[in-house]
Amino acid sequence: MEGRENSKPEVLEICPASTLKAEKLYFKGFKNPGKEAKGIREIILDTLEKRFIKEISRNARKAALENADGDALDSIIAAVATHRALKNNFRVPENKLYKLEGYIYV
Description:
2 strands
């Protein structure tokens, strides 16, 4: 990755699934309808809230639990990954591949 230029906007690539895997929170089937999948989404939300988020609003939590496709939960996970990247000053591990292909923040 080239050096940062503060006068230009930047685009980050975030992968919610990779973020969950990095946090040992990836469960198959959480993007499905049904009680079991909703329970998994709740575990993910509760853990994110304990580790990273002061408080998930009632509306955001409800949307993440009710949205079986996972888009609402993905948005929360992406916000966590973006915050972590910002907090770490967008550091990227040294790796030739990242310089060529870019880096996915988790």
